Amino acid sequence: MKQRSFASLSFESKKKPTRREKFLGEMDKVVPWEALLALIAPAYPTSGRRGRPPMPAATMLRIHFMQQWYALSDPAMEDALYEIESMRRFAGLELNEEAIPDETTILKFRRFLEQHGLAVRILETVNSYLGKQGLLLRQGTIVDATIIQAPSSTKNRDKQRDPEMHQTKKGQQWYFGMKAHIGVDVESGLVHTVTTTPANVGDVTEVDKLLHGKEKTVYADAGYQGAEKRAAKRGRTWYIAAKRGSVKAMPEGELKEAVKHTEHMKAAVRSKVEHPFRVVKRQFGYQKVRFKGLFKNTAQVLTLFALSNLWMARRTLLTSVGEVRP
Q1: Which residues form the Transposase IS4-like domain (predicted)?
Q2: CA nearest 211: which of 236, 187, 180, 248?
């Protein structure tokens, strides 16, 4: 075991753990580190062409995940490693004894994940792990999409907006950016499939890509009207919300009340799809795209939903490793 520094020992002796320490402590226990490192290892460089050898993959993966959890840029992540002891401990670093990765090293690791297509495999690995814990039952799927805004200003070096992002209207408000489309397990509320598109792409056009093929039921909001006709595979039961205007226009009576009751029951099931969006946008602070183009942003979105699954399942996972959480 690595010898701890005096600063680290002093940090351990304090009486009250912070919320960040509790969060990182829980995630340290629930992330399947061995499986993820085995995924990265075949492509990860073992020695640098010039200069010092690359940082250990385990350290860089932990730093990369902290970036997603706390919505930190590369320079902000470097500063946090110098300033925050709990983050250094999570990454396995000792100040003044080991090199702290600079922002360029952090950037290169993210590009390494992007170039080798590892973000989607991280989601697959996490879901495989959750499936072994009995948390992904795959009997039904809920589909939905959310808009992630991008900078709409043209006051930049290129004097133009990101050409891969587009605008769309939701209600009476216009948005510019991309969409994250997800397929969620009906029982657990965990995300099993993620795709991204420009914001102007209709939700219904992505529905077939969000189904894993084993589900017997599919739930969706009114934006997916006609989705059952687009799906390649038949034999599923579709529960698609009726448009509010059509329900409102019905004459008062027992039929309208029955339809409203049915729509309420559908909405109760569909509500689970909002939980991953809440975790990613509120818990992890992912309000706007960080990069230019769909490729880099898609890699981040895939990683965020993989981590949101672990966060949402943490109580069950902590119980399975002997950690009883109140």
Answers
A1: 138-310
A2: 236
Task: Of 286, 292, 279, 287, give the one whose Cα is nearest residue 114.
Answer: 292
H, E, C per residue of the chain: CCCCCHHHHHHHCCCCCCHHHHHHHHHHHHCCHHHHHHHHCCCCCCCCCCCCCCCCHHHHHHHHHHHHHHCCCHHHHHHHHHHCHHHHHHHCCCCCCCCCCCHHHHHHHHHHHHHCCHHHHHHHHHHHHHHHCCCCCCCEEEEEEEEEECCCCCCCCCCCCCCCCEEEEECCEEEEEEEEEEEEECCCCCEEEEEEEECCCCHHHHHHHHCCCCCCEEEECHHHCCHHHHCCCCCCEEEECCCHHHHHCCCCCHHHHHHHHHHHHHHHHHHHHHHHHHHHHHHCCCCECCCCCHHHHHHHHHHHHHHHHHHHCHHHHHHHCCCCCC
Q: For residue 1, what pLDDT is reported?
A: 41
* Tokens 């989607």 belong to residue: 120
Phi, psi of 303 (to 5 degrees): -65, -40
pLDDT in tens, 94-108: 887 778 999 999 999
State CA 18 to chain mean position distance. Answer: 24
Ranges 118-132, 154-168, 211-225: which has the least confidence: 154-168
Dihedral over alpha carbons 289, 292, 294, 295 (to 10 degrees): -110
- Cα dihedral sign for 27, 31, 34, 39? negative
- What CA–CA distance (Å, rounded) separates 62 from 37? 10
Measured distance CA(97)–CA(147) in Å, rounded: 44
Q: How far apart are CA 296 and CA 312, in angstroms?
A: 25
